[in-house]
Amino acid sequence: MIRVRSAAWLLAALMLAACGGVPQTSETPSVSNGPSDRLPGFPDAPATPPVTPPQTVDQVQQFVGGVFTDAQAQWTKVFAAAGVGYRPARMVLFTSAVRSGCGPQTSAVGPFYCPADDTVYLDVTFFDEMSKRFGVSGDFAMAYVVAHEVGHHIQNVTGVNAAVAKAERAQPSAANTLSVMTELQADCYAGVWAHSTYRRGLLEPGDIEEALKTAAAIGDDFQQKAATGSVRPEEWTHGSSAQRQQWLTAGYQSGQPGSCDTFAKGV
Questions:
Q1: Are 212 and 248 in contact (CB under 8 A)?
Q2: Alpha-carbon distance 115 to 161, whole Å?
Q3: Which of these, 17, 47, 112, 221, has the minimum number of CB atoms within 10 Å of its CB?
Q4: Residue 18: how many CB atoms within 10 A of its CB?
Q5: What DSSP string describes 147-196?
Q6: pTM of the model
């Protein structure tokens, strides 16, 4: 198994120490299959009045902008607690096509993060397509997608992206494995942010379930089987449905970036 090491993991350790006092569980993270938000070792989400998921393009823009701003604020606090400065990301919303620091892209690539310009790019029609194609919807399904892309920015500013690129150059055959580890870590970081929303009383019943269903729907095995009828793990770049749910859950349960070292723990 490839191991990627960099100064990023020292930073992760500092963050872990700075975020002490967050309840943990010794149980193995598991996938929630029912309507409840209850996960092993973690209490139910607080009862709050239901919120109608965003419907129009304007509502989606306002919602994802709010999630992005909130995630940035929470990560700024985590970095500050570790005594490390945080370089904020940007977000660009578009339809159909966009020019990014990583070159021109179309909506076919889905939401993406460009490390060259520290920017999250998101086609506002993606969520409607996600609902139609995969049957997943809801405000926290959208929030998970945004938080995952912000997770890639965390990897960029902590040096993980650079370490992965170096490892890929040294061993090109490991590129897919490294990509899976990178994507699963971003899922875990999304879970860390989700934990912060729980701690602040912002979660609604069913929110985490929405995120887990979304993670399952965008797993490589699910996508491959839907497209071709077969599953080819050697071609995975993002991880299986179970892996994506597992690491999202791990981040949510711990609330600690240090629990997201997919490179050391394997996938």
A1: yes
A2: 8
A3: 47
A4: 18
A5: HHHHHHHHHHHHTHHHHHHHHHHH-GGGHHHHHHHHHHHHHHHHHHHHHH
A6: 0.81
